[in-house]
TrEMBL record:
<keyword id="KW-0812">Transmembrane</keyword>
<feature type="transmembrane region" description="Helical">
    <location>
        <begin position="346"/>
        <end position="365"/>
    </location>
</feature>
<keyword id="KW-1133">Transmembrane helix</keyword>
<dbReference type="Pfam" id="PF09594">
    <property type="entry name" value="GT87"/>
</dbReference>
<feature type="transmembrane region" description="Helical">
    <location>
        <begin position="265"/>
        <end position="283"/>
    </location>
</feature>
<comment type="similarity">
    <text>Belongs to the glycosyltransferase 87 family.</text>
</comment>
<dbReference type="GO" id="GO:0016758">
    <property type="term" value="F:hexosyltransferase activity"/>
</dbReference>
<feature type="transmembrane region" description="Helical">
    <location>
        <begin position="237"/>
        <end position="258"/>
    </location>
</feature>
<feature type="transmembrane region" description="Helical">
    <location>
        <begin position="77"/>
        <end position="94"/>
    </location>
</feature>
<protein>
    <submittedName>
        <fullName>DUF2029 domain-containing protein</fullName>
    </submittedName>
</protein>
<keyword id="KW-0472">Membrane</keyword>
<keyword id="KW-1003">Cell membrane</keyword>
<feature type="transmembrane region" description="Helical">
    <location>
        <begin position="179"/>
        <end position="199"/>
    </location>
</feature>
<feature type="transmembrane region" description="Helical">
    <location>
        <begin position="124"/>
        <end position="145"/>
    </location>
</feature>
<feature type="transmembrane region" description="Helical">
    <location>
        <begin position="151"/>
        <end position="172"/>
    </location>
</feature>
<dbReference type="GO" id="GO:0005886">
    <property type="term" value="C:plasma membrane"/>
</dbReference>
<dbReference type="InterPro" id="IPR018584">
    <property type="entry name" value="GT87"/>
</dbReference>
Amino acid sequence: MWPLAIMTVLHRVLVKAVSGYITDDFKPVYEAALAFLNRREVYNANFDSVDPHYLYPPSGTLLISPIAIIDPEKSRWIFISVNAAAVILAGYLLLKLFDLGIKSVAAPILLFGMFSSETVTNTLIFTNINGVVLLAEVVFIMLLLRRKDLWAGAAMGLTIAVKPILIPLLLLPFVRGQWKVFVTAFGIPLILTAIAWPLSVDPMNFFKRTGPYILETRDYFNSSISGNGEYYGLPPWLTWGLRLLFGAMVLISLWILYRYYRTDELFFVTTTSGLVLTASFLLPSLGQMYYSMMLFPFLMTVVLKNSVLRNWPAWFAIYAFMSYDGWLSTRFPAEGRLAEYMRTTLGWSLLIIVIFSVLGDRYLAARREGRLDVSLDPVEPAPAPASVTELSDSLR
């Protein structure tokens, strides 16, 4: 596996990422950083176009502004390298989190799986900051489990300052009573905003122009239920009905996790993180396929005996939103377009259904067997009694 993993990493970084694509997330970020350093307007994008727009708040602009000190090409290569290194480091920390070593077969499998996925591949090709956000997420989870609350909040606060995609994970310290997390999680972006505000020419335009745009449901590059509903012209009652249905599944699953699994800390934190993040991609106004990178800590739970991912429907779902395969077809254009545009939405939806079904089945089985106060996990069958021949062989 190591040759496959290493060559895949080199291909994604040196060929796919450096070559780039028509979608370029780095260009508007570099231009915004350059404008910030030169005291020009930052939040003046034309939102009528479908090109990538600059959406970071003033605190994020302050943090990323150093990328404009050097020329755009070298800066982009550094940005790619930093994000690739962040993904690799996040993978290493995930191995440690699940008590797996670099010498285990899980290490090359994880590295190969990460860099084969659509989310890592397009993060590098489009050149955005998701790799660094993934690393911050893994650090946040590790520090949260070790009860280093202020440092966990610092990791979260840095992501909120740039790209608040991980905010749903603050549910974890809330239900676990780790209140100090919130001090740094919100304190850091507030301090950075206070520093950035007088240095920016148009900071209020982020709240007046960019903020409302972020909250809009757009019908392009949007795999949320509402986004695909807009694209396919579904009636509002249907999209709202689906959102409420999946929202109910999420709430019931969260209740089961909190009620019966919160003492199994690693399983509870990583599974709950996957559930709330998947819901945050699927149910609000915007969800993009490469957001799925934030689900890697959840996908690693497959190594746990009580994982909810040890079934084939889960991996159909994971294939749908993780695979780099393209389903557009010249032979079957309508069907291929439907498969390509819907696969992420269906994958996230199926993943929520799987979590809900597995946890619900465990709950019903435990209630039926009268062991709700003991454990929801399936009872492992007792080992078969040894035969006379096996006993005599062991005595020898």
